[in-house]
Amino acid sequence: RSSWLLLAPLLTPPVPVITAPPCSLCPEGAHRFQWIRNLVPEFGISSSHVKVLSCPAEFYELLKVQIKTAKQRVVMASLYLGTGLLEQELVDCLEETLEKSLQAKESSNLRVSILLDYTRGSRGRKNSRTMLIPLLQRFPEQVRVSLFHTPNLRGLLRLLIPERFNETIGLQHIKVYLFDDNVILSGANLSDLYFTNRQDRYVLLQDSPEIADFFTELVDAIGDVSLQLQRDDTVQMMEGMEHPYQGDKTTYCEIANRRVMEVINSARTRQELLHAKTFHSSQQGSSLISQQGSQASGGLKPEPDTWIYPLIQMKPFGIQIDEMVTETLLTEAERDARIYLTTGYFNLTQAYMDLILGTRAEYRILLASPEVNGFFGAKGVAGAIPAAYVYIERQFYSEVCYLHQQERVQLQEYSRAGWTFHAKGLWLYLAGSDLPCLTLIGSPNFGYRSVHRDLEAQVAIVTENQALQRELHREQEQLYLCSGVVSPSTFEQPNRYVKLWVKLVTPLIKNFF
């Protein structure tokens, strides 16, 4: 009980800043989403470079293969690295690849950069840090491990809040795994559950150097304002860098904002110049960009039919691009458009709920049933979190029913024996279309934490290619096949009983999970 009282200084949430949408959608097919490039870089690629994965085992095997074949860079950002045998195998793959790079005749160019959260990665005696220290000790010139510490956990609060509970204040939540020019975007962490029976989403962007460069620079920027893990398991900031919890908070956040926005804006400028050159050369009847691409690939670069937009959300640093884009997508979705939205933790922000209930599109929202919630069966207070989600779900469903929106807004619960559910994202089907032309995939859960507390990143994938659209449609169908539609009878089941104390506490703590 006392653990909850320690959170008292933060129980009154800050007033969210409502940001006006940057612009309205244009009317022409997939091109209607090009307004996003006013905020972030736009990467045009061929749909043949996009591969949608479907299961944890496939994700794990791909990670191992990509690590083993990497020649220039391995960049991995995650909440944490687990401590089991499967995670050790990943570390062994990294060690093997680094060893090969040292033994190569030419000078070793391979660099490994790992970004994790400080509080989650330091939990317990055996943790992410102890898993990675052998790599730092053996390859000090090639390996960098950065541990992000939220600037909001400081002073007396940092001293009082115990381990695990300190993770409620703010986290590094981005999940990006890149190997040379191949990038995996996912919501999955580097832990055995996510490699075996914890359902998530995963997409591989192959041979995409500009996208890989962007996420390398983004991880480097966050790494620069993070604590650096040393070979003796101590941590220290880079020389001259403001400390996240010992230094001035405003100064630290301004520096972090500047570093991240430099990455976004410089990439955006590069892509605009690239786009202008491509357009100009195509007008001349020859493509300079294609010629440059052919030097590396041995062939002509195909015309892009798919566009990737990285969406970054770091409210502690004053960056809220993902929030702006998501709100605009929900606001501008037309009548008879369909939005399939999924989250492992159904705890939408008030702004997102208002938009879903007040706009015209049809919504199919997939969420975890209590049994597949990641906190199901947890010890202590955490064991009550699935019941809190049931309470939040019931409140939202009651509002849907009160507004007579049951046909337009439908809740579905994912249920699968022996599995947990962690998938998050969105698929957008334009009016009259049976296939999605846009998907959001990455780390955000569409909840208060994702918008206000944590560091998040996802990508909007917009495509005109029907084969890729069918692949995304199959991904959506596979997930929704394991679900049942929520109805009033759902909440009459014995496992949906919510204790009175949970109902009383949930409104106070819902912004922390």
TrEMBL record:
GO CC annotations, alphabetized: mitochondrion
Catalytic activity: a CDP-1,2-diacyl-sn-glycerol + sn-glycerol 3-phosphate = a 1,2-diacyl-sn-glycero-3-phospho-(1'-sn-glycero-3'-phosphate) + CMP + H(+)
One MF term in the entry's GO annotations: CDP-diacylglycerol-glycerol-3-phosphate 3-phosphatidyltransferase activity
Gene3D superfamilies, sorted: Endonuclease Chain A
Coiled-coil segments on the chain, per record: none
PLD phosphodiesterase domain sequence ranges: 168-194
Subcellular compartments: Mitochondrion
E.C. number(s) listed in UniProt: 2.7.8.5
Involved pathway(s): Phospholipid metabolism; phosphatidylglycerol biosynthesis; phosphatidylglycerol from CDP-diacylglycerol: step 1/2
Signal peptide (UniProt feature, chain positions): 1-19
UniProt-listed InterPro entries: PGS1, PLipase_D/transphosphatidylase
Main location: mitochondrion
Record-level GO BP terms: cardiolipin biosynthetic process
Keyword Membrane: no
SUPFAM superfamilies for the chain: Phospholipase D/nuclease
Keyword entries, A-Z: ATP-binding, Lipid biosynthesis, Lipid metabolism, Mitochondrion, Nucleotide-binding, Phospholipid biosynthesis, Phospholipid metabolism, Repeat, Signal, Transferase
Entry similarity comment: Belongs to the CDP-alcohol phosphatidyltransferase class-II family.
Function as written in the Swiss-Prot or TrEMBL entry: Functions in the biosynthesis of the anionic phospholipids phosphatidylglycerol and cardiolipin.
Protein name: CDP-diacylglycerol--glycerol-3-phosphate 3-phosphatidyltransferase
